């Protein structure tokens, strides 16, 4: 008895479901991506050979060409914890909305007395020319707000991440040394004797060297 031959048919794949998944994933990444806030000052950092450290692990002190100091942390939880301690230290009350804005505000370069007004300016106006006057860093314990930001940052890292904070200075290579020296003096006054410098590596992102 002859065998019955089954006619061969080409395989058809319905791509509709796959396209839907691809667009859903694309939409998810677009909506959840956090863009880095614009830096208040442009800093041309020197080059060196160093090791790379994740930005979320660093308390970054930026020093502009005119000697202004800025404080920044990428980690949102540590940022809010730091501000809570600063608010308690300086007897300033922040609203829930202001804490939310601060978590994503980027580098801070104003005195504590101006911080609430700075947060309420909105993202587009915070980095406008003349807004950032720099964090006070007088080389005395009283009135040295930069030192307070550093101390509160160290405590926040211990509380939120259960580890010591990595502190780094990011200075323009044309910045006068006395401006950097003032920042280092602040570290010494706060008993911070171990810190790092941010430099650039050829063909790579910024590095942090001890």
Give the topology.
Elements: H1 16-32, E1 58-63, E2 69-73, H2 76-90, H3 96-103, H4 115-119, H5 123-126, H6 145-160, E3 166-171, H7 177-189, E4 196-200, E5 206-209
Parallel strand pairs: 1-3, 3-4
Antiparallel strand pairs: 1-2, 4-5
Helix pairs in contact: 2-3, 2-6
State the low-pLDDT regions, or none.
none
The total count of helices amounts to 7
Name the helicity range. Answer: 25-40%
Which H/E pattern describes the elements? HEEHHHHHEHEE
What class, by secondary structure content?
A: alpha/beta
Tell me the strand percentage band: 5-15%
Record the strand order, biggest sheet.
2-1-3-4-5
* CA-based gyration radius: 24 Å
Question: Overall mean pLDDT score?
Answer: 80
Question: How far apart, in Å, are the first and last alpha carbons?
Answer: 86 Å
> How many separate domains make up the residues?
1
The shape is elongated
What's the count of strands? Answer: 5
Largest sheet: 5 strands, mixed
């Amino acid at each position: 008895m002859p065998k019955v031959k089954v006619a061969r048919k080409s395989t058809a794949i319905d791509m509709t479901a796959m396209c839907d998944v691809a667009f859903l994933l694309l939409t998810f990444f677009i909506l959840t991506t956090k863009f880095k806030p614009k830096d208040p000052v442009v800093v041309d950092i020197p080059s060196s050979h160093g090791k790379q450290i994740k930005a979320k692990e660093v308390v970054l002190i930026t020093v502009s060409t005119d000697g202004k100091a800025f404080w920044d942390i990428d980690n949102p939880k540590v940022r809010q914890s730091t501000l809570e301690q600063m608010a308690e230290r300086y007897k300033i009350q922040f609203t829930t909305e202001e804490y939310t804005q601060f978590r994503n505000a980027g580098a801070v370069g104003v005195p504590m007395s101006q911080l609430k007004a700075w947060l309420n300016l909105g993202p587009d106006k915070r980095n406008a020319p003349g807004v950032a006057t720099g964090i006070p860093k007088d080389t005395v314990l009283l009135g040295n707000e930069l030192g307070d930001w550093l101390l509160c940052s160290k405590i926040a890292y211990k509380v939120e991440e259960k580890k010591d904070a990595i502190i780094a200075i990011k200075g323009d290579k044309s910045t006068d040394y006395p401006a950097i020296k003032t920042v280092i003096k602040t570290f010494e006054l706060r008993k911070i004797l171990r810190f790092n410098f941010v430099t650039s590596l050829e063909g790579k992102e910024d590095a942090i060297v001890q």
